[in-house]
Every structure is written in C-alpha cells, then in structure tokens.
Amino acid sequence: LLKTVVERGTGSETPSDGAKVAIELKSMSTGANASATTADGPVELVIGDDAGGEGLRRVLMSMTRSEVVRVRMHPSLARPPIVAPSDSPDTLIEIELRLVSFEQQRALDQLSPRELIEHVGRLKNAANAAYAAGDEKESACTQYERAQRVLRLVVEDDLTAAEVSSWRGIQLSRINSRPAYPPALCGAARLG
Question: 106 near 80, Cβ under 8 Å?
C-alpha cells in the first residue's frame, strides 16, 4: 500500500473507524480489468464496514478533509463495491481519491455499553461477510480482532438487563460461530 499526496487537505483531523465519509473516487489501474465505482457526486461509506477493503480504510484514516491522494495497493487490499480487484492477483491497483467530508463518530471510550455492543455487532457482521467471501487473513482477521478489543471495553456492571442479555448473546456467539471462524485463522484474539 503506497499513498502519495496530490493535494493537501484542510485541518488536522482525520476520520477513524465508524466515521461516515464522502469521497470522490476515480480509477487509474495498471491492470486492464481493475475498476472503481465512479459517480457524478461523492460516494458515501462508513469506515470499517469493509466497503472498499482494508486498503481504502487505511488510506481514509490518514487523510484530512479535501485531501487528494493517489494510492497503489495490492488487489488483496481492495474490495467491492468501491474498488473491484483485477483478475490478476499480481496486478497493482492504482486509484486517485479525494476526501470530500466526514462525520466523526464519538470515541469508543465515550460510547455507552449499548452503543459499544452495537458497534461490535457491526464489526462482527463485516468480519463474517469478509470470511464468507473468502478473504480470510486480510479483512476478516482485522475485523474480528478489532471487535474483540472493543468487546473488552464493555463492563457488565454498567449494563441494563436487556444490554446484559445482548452482551451475553455476543459472548455466546463466540462459541456458536466457531465453525465459521477457524481458531487458527487469526490466532488467539478472535470474536467468533
């Protein structure tokens, strides 16, 4: 993954996981079959929901508002619907994008236990989708490990009865979903 700044952005704030971003995207692939979604206006997505893949997520989290960058990435870091990897696994994808705007989610330490549980659920769903798509190491492990770290922030004493039930449901799903998530896949830190 190589990012080159074409035009500096404004301010110093960068989006983090969970931020809603609007980007303008254009493909300039070195491979004949790679493509990018181009639209008349900005494309909106949530960082961390696996749209565009891990490569796009990393790039967006390092950008400021209005920044324009050119990015070269391996196809394994690209995901539809924003960036579709080429047929050749060795052909690098090159894109140019501009971060139009973003709406930052509150920091994890500022979320209520209920909001943390909802966030973990979204991360787990994204990880399950990545795993089902066959993206075992790159995206699935990243999502599962991120969800596991967030899950540790939930303190059962601060939860209502309904939230405890939901939290225990997520904990139980760690056991129930093991067949869909091989233990050796990402090591000890895993969610399900």
Answer: no
d(CA 160, CA 167): 10
**In angstroms, rounded to a whole number, what is the distance separating the alpha carbons of residues 189 and 178?**
13
Q: 171 by DSSP, 3-state: which?
A: helix
- In the chain, DSSP assigns E strands to 2-7, 20-27, 35-36, 43-46, 68-73, 83-84, 93-103
What's the length of the chain? 192
| pLDDT band for position 127 (cuts 50, 70, 90) | confident
Q: What is the DSSP letter of 87?
A: S
Cα distance between residue 86 and residue 166, in whole Å: 40
Looking at residues 108-131, what average pLDDT do you find?
77
Q: Which residue has 């493909």 as its token pair? A: 27
**Dihedral angle over CA of 64, 66, 70, 75, nearest 10:** 70
pTM confidence score: 0.59
Q: Do 104 and 13 meet the contact criterion of CB atoms below 8 Å apart?
A: yes
Per-residue model confidence (pLDDT) at position 189: 41
Q: What is the pLDDT of residues 74-118, one digit of tens each?
A: 888 887 766 665 556 677 888 899 999 999 877 777 777 777 778
**Rounded Cα gap, residues 94 and 107, in angstroms:** 31
**Gap between the Cα atoms of 143 and 149, Å rounded:** 10
CB burial of residue 96 (10 Å; 0-12, 13-18, 19+): middle
